[in-house]
Design goal:
Radius of gyration: 18 Å
Number of helices: 12
CATH topology: TIM Barrel
CATH superfamily: Aldolase class I
Order of helices and strands: EEEHEHEHEHEHHEHEHEHHHH
CATH class: Alpha Beta
Structural class: alpha/beta
Largest sheet: 8 strands, parallel
Helix content: 40-55%
Oligomer: single chain
Strand order of the largest sheet: 9-8-7-6-5-4-1-10
Length: 291
Amino acid sequence: MFTGTYTAIVTPFKSGKLDETALTELIQKQVDAGIDGVVPVGTTGESPTLDCDEHLRVIEVAVEVAAGKIKVLAGTGGNATQEAIYLTQEAQKRGASGSLQVAPYYNKPSSEGLYQHFKAIADATELPILLYSIPGRCGVAIEVDTVKRLADDCPRIVGIKEAGGDADRVSQLRHGLGQDFIILSGDDALTLPFMSVGAQGVISVASNLIPGTIASMVRDFAAGRVGEAQKVHAQYYPLFKALFVETNPVPVKEALHLMGQMELELRLPLVPMTLAHRDHLKTVLKSLDLI
């Protein structure tokens, strides 16, 4: 359902407002490159700094441009359950293919709280849901037992974006949830290691820049062309690391700006890269003929 390569698309701004022209062009490039889907208003889409109307408009634009050719897995999570339910229901109305639900951040719920949060959302929508475990940002992980309980009790919860950096957790998830449950890597540098133990693709930051390349790498690995996939991984590994030399999405927005695809504009509290990190990113992009 949601296997393959999904681009965690950035949210372009211009003069403080959503840049719909740039967003449309970025998503169209994804469609043209043969990506499996896009994930608007996730971490990379700076969702915490968008107001509700902007958040839903980004989803609308993604659905319009995707035009049924690729999937739109809308980021509609939050640390307030009622807000997450509202955003998810509105994304459903706007034609999203599914919902990505991040673990509630800052308030650090217990495992039972996480279960009740996600179950309430699943009960309130008809969209398929992928959970999103990223303890480095949220302060909590969605434990494997909680994921299994949710999958057993909530048919709409069909997978997880695993961004904890641990391939053993992928093995635990696959062992505990069986072959039908979708597991996607949340880290470009770990896509192939995670796929080697049961993940079925990636929600990628790097594919903002090289969508066709990442999609081909994932398809090659899934089809058993391991050597071809490993060559791509090795070639672009410096880019995977450079895109996280500072907080995501600061580097990827800088890269897209250097590639002439959008204005370099972030919303506070995010700020542009340091000169040293920018120079390093430019060197990596030049080495790969991306600028």
